[in-house]
């Protein structure tokens, strides 16, 4: 087998400088975030890729890839698999180049995204319940019909197209200290980093990943890309379980650091962007700001120009319900506590006095025991994590049993809505966190696959207008022999899942 020679950094620099994207893409502005700059003590600049026609940077890489195809290839058509911004980028690029575009999307894709692709002239094929199934089908169709596959990130021309953002940045701002760029599969980070490090290596380039899909960090740890399995789909634009091979090679060579951020920190960054610009970023679009805030604070950075990429703004409005609930926790202006108090008159009043001048923002309780009560409480904070630690210490000194649930995702997504649901009899219960496709058939399939094998002892989910829904489910499995069939059920169901029976919030409020 002949080994394909990898492009050097200078090769990529050449490709980025000659990239053909401005037939459809535009040079996007760089906006100063006044409020966040003042709070952090640095100059925060936001690269507004939401200004692109498809409200995402993806148009750059898709068009550059297709602009390098021959007329014969374009006449045969192009194909891609995507449920997000890449789909719209390919559809618009094909329309401008006079080519047929087929986009394979999972059957769980919301109508909003399907209709957006069709509006841009793309032909939509709905196939499979996951991206991997859709991608495999796209490969098969490309082979059967001779269409060119347009990858979302792991491709030299796609990477070069995304790298044009860095070319614009260097012309828009002098004396750049750091550029923060989100990572999904790695195409955006690879393109920006290789360009900047080839020309001005003194500029730091920091990749930012969501904690629930940190595949590039896992690749760095292992020395090669690995499949991390279960990923969170809150920031669906970066919900990738395996980094690209070429993007990994370039990121390892050119990134200075990688920082990971929680969903709460992403929500707080979305609020920051709205407060300063009135733009509503999608979660993955705000990820770079979340990383910038975290990095600046952890490294005690003062002054200088620090740039974050607002990579996209394709968000369904109802998704903002979760963002509104979680942004205060992400900014650490709210803490969430589980507190055991006496089951007696006046105990709630005594608790409120114990927390001092802080405001209680949420309080959930249901009678369950004659002696002790377990409450779920949210408390307003003014000085972040240090104040929360001080508060928990103060409460413990006064005799309260306290658990900090501020960073417990299951507590925030599920348990807070179920407080007081203690079973009346002892169950042999196992608890699992599933991700259901956001489709009408997902629950039916779950129940039909389960059949009469086990009794469901706990069930909670809320539609959040993402491609996947977080579902908390308990099973009364009986003895150890009976629980053996649960693994078989989970395999046949084939939904992303992991066991959370040991979760603190579940043990305290629901077990």
Question: Care to give the gist of this entry?
Answer:
The chain has 511 residues and is an alpha/beta fold. The protein contains 21 helices and 18 strands.
Topology (elements, then pairings):
Elements (H helix, E strand, L loop, with lengths): L8 H9 L12 E3 L1 H7 L2 E6 L9 H10 L3 H6 L1 E4 L3 H13 L3 E5 L5 H9 L3 E4 L4 H15 L2 E2 L6 H17 L3 E7 L4 H13 L4 E7 L4 H8 L22 H10 L2 E5 L1 H15 L5 H16 L6 E6 L9 H11 L3 E9 L4 H8 L5 E5 L7 E9 L3 H14 L3 E4 L4 H5 L15 E9 L4 H9 L4 E7 L6 E9 L3 H4 L1 H9 L3 E3 L4 H6 L2
Parallel strand pairs: 2-10, 3-4, 3-6, 4-5, 7-8, 7-10, 8-9
Antiparallel strand pairs: 1-2, 11-13, 11-14, 12-13, 15-17, 15-18, 16-17
Give an account of the 3D structure.
It is a single chain. β12 and β13 form a beta hairpin. 42% of the residues lie in helices and 20% in strands. The protein is built from 21 helices and 18 strands. It is globular. The protein has four domains: 214 residues, 3-Layer(aba) Sandwich (Rossmann fold); 92 residues, Rossmann fold; 76 residues, Alpha-Beta Plaits (2-Layer Sandwich), CATH 3.30.70.1340; 81 residues, Alpha-Beta Plaits (2-Layer Sandwich).
Dominant shape: globular
What is the CATH topology of the largest domain?
Rossmann fold
Highest CATH level, the class of the largest domain: Alpha Beta
Residue stretches low in confidence (pLDDT < 50, at least 5 long) are none
Secondary structure: number of strands: 18
Please, what is the oligomeric state? Answer: single chain
The tally of domains stands at 4
Strand content: 15-25%
Q: What's the number of helices?
A: 21
Classify the secondary structure makeup into a structural class: alpha/beta
């Amino acid at each position: 087998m002949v080994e394909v020679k990898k492009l050097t950094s200078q090769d990529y620099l050449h490709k980025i400088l000659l990239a053909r994207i401005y037939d459809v893409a535009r040079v996007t502005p760089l906006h100063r975030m006044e409020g966040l700059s003042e709070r952090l003590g640095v100059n925060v600049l936001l690269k507004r890729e939401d200004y692109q026609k498809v409200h995402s940077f993806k148009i750059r890489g898709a068009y550059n890839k297709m602009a390098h195809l021959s007329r014969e290839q374009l006449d045969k058509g192009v194909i891609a698999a995507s449920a997000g911004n890449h789909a719209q980028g390919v559809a618009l690029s094909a329309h401008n180049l006079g080519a047929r575009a087929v986009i394979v999307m999972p059957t769980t894709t919301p109508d909003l995204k399907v209709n957006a692709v069709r509006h841009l002239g793309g032909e939509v094929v709905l196939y499979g319940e996951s991206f991997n199934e859709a991608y495999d089908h796209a490969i098969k169709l490309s082979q059967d019909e001779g269409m060119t596959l347009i990858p979302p990130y792991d491709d030299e021309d796609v990477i070069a197209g995304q790298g044009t953002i860095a070319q614009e940045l260097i012309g828009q701002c002098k004396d750049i200290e750091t550029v923060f760029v989100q990572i999904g599969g790695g195409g955006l980070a690879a393109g920006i980093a290789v360009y900047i490090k080839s020309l001005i290596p003194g500029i730091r380039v920091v990749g930012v990943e969501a904690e629930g899909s940190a595949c590039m960090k896992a690749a760095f740890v292992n020395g090669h890309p690995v499949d991390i399995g279960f990923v969170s789909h809150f920031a669906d634009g970066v919900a990738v379980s395996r980094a690209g091979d070429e993007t990994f090679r370039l990121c390892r060579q050119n990134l200075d650091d990688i920082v990971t951020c929680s969903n709460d920190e992403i929500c707080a960054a979305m609020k920051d962007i709205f407060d300063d610009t009135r733009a509503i970023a999608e979660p993955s679009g705000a990820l770079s700001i979340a990383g910038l805030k975290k990095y600046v604070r952890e490294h005690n950075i003062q002054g200088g120009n620090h740039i974050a990429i607002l990579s996209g703004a394709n968000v369904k409005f109802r998704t903002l319900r979760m963002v509104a609930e979680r942004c205060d926790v992400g900014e650490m202006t709210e803490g969430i506590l589980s507190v055991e108090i006496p089951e007696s008159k006046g105990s709630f009043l005594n608790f409120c006095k114990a927390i001092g001048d802080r405001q209680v923002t949420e309080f959930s309780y249901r009678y369950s025991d004659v002696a002790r009560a377990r409450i779920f409480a949210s408390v307003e904070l003014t000085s972040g994590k240090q104040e929360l630690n001080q508060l928990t210490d103060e409460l413990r000194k006064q005799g309260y049993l306290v658990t900090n649930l501020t960073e417990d995702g299951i507590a925030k997504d599920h348990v807070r809505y179920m407080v007081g649901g203690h079973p009346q009899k002892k169950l042999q219960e196992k608890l699992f966190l599933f991700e259901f496709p956001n489709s009408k058939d997902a629950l039916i399939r779950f129940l039909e696959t389960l059949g009469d094998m086990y009794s469901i002892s706990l069930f909670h989910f809320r539609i959040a207008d993402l491609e996947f829904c977080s579902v908390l489910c308990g099973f009364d499995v009986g003895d150890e022999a009976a629980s053996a069939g649960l693994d078989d059920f989970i395999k046949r169901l084939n939904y992303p899942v992991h066991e959370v029976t040991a979760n603190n919030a579940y043990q305290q409020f629901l077990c």
